[in-house]
Amino acid sequence: MRKLLSEAAERAVRYLEGLDSRGVAPVAGAIELLKKWDEPLPDGPTDPETVVALLDEIGSPATMAMAGPRFFGFVIGRALPAALGANWLAGAWDQNTALSAVTPGTALLERIALRWLLDVLGLPPTCGRLPGPQRGRPQSGAGLLRRPGDDNAGHRGYPGGWHLLVRRDGVARARRDAHQRLLLGHDRGRR
After folding, report:
1. Are residues 8 and 44 located together in one domain of the fold?
2. Of the residues 16, 48, 96, 107, which has the fewest C-beta atoms closer than 10 A?
């Protein structure tokens, strides 16, 4: 594993260091080479080193140089080294931050990030409160929908909350209903 991850990191660093010397937009030939990825599903696993090499050798030249100093399109790009390093570490941690008892470190980081975001946006800290001990991403909307002084009594959702009409359309319905109940309470969604 160490060899593979070191190779991936070396390729990533080489890509970033080369952004100053390449064009911002990918050339047509690089985009044409992306077709090499489109192949039938392999019969078995592919060597991990081969996967990383193909991603870099075919994908890197076909990227827009958003992380480089000369990209000025939209309000995206230019990952800071600290943010990129944190992203790599978070990927290695592979945490599902739904329960703070299971993932205390990343759960705390999410609470801190939420507090900072509310501060930047000038919103009161009560906007970030989530009911119960679970503070997973699907529930984060509940905290933003909640107003100071609201009380999620029983399963009726937040007082003055929205009533949603959810169409029953197979598998999507169950997923929508579950998210709706997380955000608004059991009785807030009408079918």
Report:
1. yes
2. 96
Q: What CA–CA distance (Å, rounded) separates 146 from 164?
A: 16
**Interatomic CA distance for residues 145 and 139, integer angstroms:** 10
121-151 confidence digits (pLDDT tens):
888 887 765 444 444 444 444 444 454 555 5
Determine phi and psi for 134, rounding to 5 degrees. Answer: -85, 135
Q: What element of type H or E holds 14?
A: helix 2-17
Domain limit, last residue, from 46, 71, 93: 93
Contact 163, 186 (CB under 8 A): no
Give the pLDDT confidence of 29-60 residue by residue, as tens digits: 999 999 999 999 999 999 999 999 999 999 99
DSSP three-state, residue 126: helix
User: Into how many domains does the chain fold?
Assistant: 3
Pick from 61-65, 83-87, 141-145, 170-174: least confident = 170-174
Q: What is the DSSP letter of 170?
A: T
What is the Cα gyration radius of the chain? 23
Can you give the residue range of the structural domain that contains 177? 155-191
Distance CA 160, CA 158 (A): 6
- Let me know whether 33 and 72 are in one domain: yes
